[in-house]
Amino acid sequence: MTGASKYPSVRAHLSPRAQAAALVAAMAVVISVLSATPATAEIRPVPEASGYTYSAGEPAIWGRYGGTAGSYFDNACSGGFVIAGDSGTFLTTATACGFIGAADGSIRGDAGYHADQFARRDNDPTVLLRMRPGNDADMLIVDPTTGQMPGNGELQGWTRSVDQPVGLLIGKMGIDTGWTEGRILGTVPGRFGEQLLCTDAAAGPGDVGGPVWRQDDSGLRALGTVVGISDAGGACYRPIQETLYQYGAYLPSYGPPQGRPSWGTFAPGMVAYPGTAEVTSVGRVLDKGVDWRL
Question: Which end of the chain is more exposed for a tag (fewer CB within 10 A), N or C?
């Protein structure tokens, strides 16, 4: 709107004291409206999941998302693979998803709360989640948006970092873009100085934490965990070998045992990704209890 208003300025006819009083009153109204906003949102209770069976790619939604909004919002990411060690069996997802953190560490999926944050390394972009009693996990990979699986979905094992070269065709699952495929483009620095593998498989903020996999003559194999999004909208991931090494764990699967690996190295001829990656994304925010598909 341009030009002079046809309405005279009310403020011009008030004394300085009256102007100040009017300003205070207006601020009080604004503060009242802002403070009332969360209370007017539709907040649904989140149930405790009982008998929940998790598969890689399903939602990993952090309850009570930070700050004064903690009672009203959740932080939605994707869950990764299941790994096991001396302390039991755990789900993986991205550290960034819970970096701000659920005050109580609670994690929910489709059916409600089913896990809690268990462990996080200061120098690793993945975090472990412990399933709550009565819940379990399958060694399956599923597209959470459609329920489809590559082949029969049964994980046969994992692929070493050195066997993931530039140009390798990979797949990824996540709650934002579901099942997408692409190729490895190169490495990019991660959140803690580690190197990630970036791809052109489409991904969004809610896909962070999800599984990266490949199906070939040796069956369905785990490659890594999405922990960043490239400037071109591709998934960047931490190789699974490094995650297993960091936590002293092994990968349960339907295939022959592969044990607990040592630290890996990248494939010969690996190059640097020519762009950048967002590695601090905490997923997307949902109203408490709202279905992540909405």
Answer: N
- What pLDDT digit, counting tens, does each position of 261-292 carry? 999 999 999 999 999 999 998 888 888 888 89
Residue 287 burial (CB count, 10 A): 15
The residue written with tokens 């530039």 in the block is 166
Pick from 97, 82, 126: nearest CA to 237 = 126
Q: Which long-range contacts (CB under 8 A, 24 or more apart) does 65-73 make?
A: 65/100, 65/102, 65/285, 66/100, 66/101, 66/103, 68/38, 69/38, 70/103, 71/38, 71/43, 71/288, 72/38, 72/41, 72/43, 72/287, 72/288, 73/285, 73/286, 73/287, 73/288
Beta bridge partners of 89: 84
Answer whether 0.70 is exceeded by the pTM: yes
Rounded to an integer, what distance in angstroms lies between the CA atom of residue 237 and that of residue 174? 13
Q: What three-state secondary structure class fits 217?
A: coil
